[in-house]
Amino acid sequence: MSFALPPVLRRVAPQVVTLVAVCVLVTLFFPGFLDLRLSDGRLVGPVIDIVKRSAPVALLAIGMTLVIATKGIDLSVGTTMAITGAVAAWCLDSGLGVGPAVALAIATGLVCGLWNGGLVAIIGIQPIVATLILMTAGRGIAQLITEGRILTFNDAGFAWFGSGAILGVPVPAVIWVVTGVALALLMRRTALGLLVEAIGVNRRASAIAGVNATVLLIAVYVASGLCAAFAGIITTADIRGADANNAGLWLELDAILAVVIGGNSLLGGRFSIAASILGALIIQTIDTGILLAGFPSEYNLVIKAALVVIILVLQSPQFMAEVFFWRRFGRKNLAPDTVKEDAR
Amino acid sequence: MNPRLYPLYATIGIFLFACLVCYIQFPFMASTRVLGNLLTDNAYLGIVAVGMTIVILSGGIDLSVGSVIAFSGVFIAVMLRDSGLPAPVIMALLLVVTTLFGAAMGGLIHALAMPPFIVTLAGMFLARGAAYMLTIDSVPIVDPFYDRLQDAYYLMPGKGRLTLIGVLMLASVAVGMIVAHRTRFGASVFALGGGVQTARLMGVRVGRTTVGIYAFSGFMAGLSGIVFSVYTGSGYPLATVGTELTAIAAVVIGGTLLTGGSGFVFGTLIGVMTMGLIQTYIVFDGSLSSWWTKIVIGGLLLLFIVLQKGLLRLTTTRLASPQAGAPV
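The joint structure predicted for all components is written out below.
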């Protein structure tokens, strides 16, 4: 990019280009893709549908971005969604009302995050194993709360979180946009984002430099748990029931994928919440687009896998070095040994 | 005593303790029938966990195995239905496909220097997607060769059935033990788990070993898929979702460090057996609900990891002394 773009836009440019490309591709197959109209005071159309449906993955990706920035990973978010959903449904069934249900669900998400953070930061367990524990046990806990059934409820107030609208925009979309903007501002308008990145690059060095790495690490996992709680509330409200077996199943992998498509390194360090959210939107656009374009949904996973591999190859530092090497070789037509010197 | 063996002893100790608890409560559990079923029911998991152990010993991870098992079942079922090739040929073909699939993932991991987690995640989507593309239905396997495989068993004293697939699992563990602990390839795997840079300096061919590791895991996943198709008698693209995580859990319970470089293939067998025992206990009890399996396995995972963490602190102080040996 030779023309001057603000740094944020320059960072998310590849993701924006990918998203636009995917949208154009879907529009070619399904011309009505960009239709937007107002019906009963709310916006409807495929685009709005995508923005609404991407809420769980986008929310999880927001939390996951921070965790991955610290060189961690959180496999338990899908399970946390199931537990928070089960808690919320249980509260509604016990007649506690919407307020306590939401509060308890959020508190549950915070506790899950605290548990993961404690295992990672204080006991020093590898993040992937530490969160695997909750991932395995958590679904059992969720089933314990729902007693193995699908807990249904009939509460218009709570269902609003899943199917309501604010100024014509679906509530789930509003929730993930607000969460994303709030966390991004918190990270980038204070030094927190920098400190999180410092931990990801080298925890010991950042601790020596005076960063309270332990507390910050726990906080990052708590943030991830909080995002998972929001996602759990939305999913539960959407289907008006808590399904301990299937709520949020394998969504952690989609969230990790979104973060990786967003160009964030799994090895920690620099992160961009906006890019991760764009990654989540790309995934959802592909999912919905395949359906709209009339392809059988069986192709979904293969297309997704192919896309991931392409994005991975493009992002690989080794691959880019190779490309630059050959381009320079071709342009200047230098002797090979000089090029090698150059590449170094 | 070699402190590196402590995790293995802890694993075996906990397994024996669990056996004792089961025996005291339900004396009938000490029968060859239960043992035979334990081996048969967990055969596919045991085989895939052996491959996973090698991958984890090298410091990597393979998330694709569950999908590869499902793909294998669907591949066999559809090929048997549509191609008319004899079953053994199809099985050989399948093993070639899954081994090449694993090798390709290993190649990508090495060539692009990408984390195994994300490469094998893409592999997981690809294998599951390929299974969907073959069929979205559950396809029954009707074949005389399969009938013979399903009926092949040795009647142990006490009427317990030692099935072919159970024996195959034990054989896979034996092969895994030899590969990991007695070959040059195994030594390279341990060296990689200790650190890629040091391994390279020691003269390990990193690229070749990485490809070999994931090819081995792909082969084991294919074998496990065959066993699973014998076990269920059908191919279903939605089968064995999440098996990769169960396998990882079994490996961790078996005393292998997820950071790589330390562990035992035999421990993995004990890990698989421990998880199977918990399920058998819940079946015997009858009043406990199935979700307790997940909670207990989660608890066991936590216990083992904390135990390992403590042992690791103990050994790192002790490894400073000269008599500490290499991993067995």
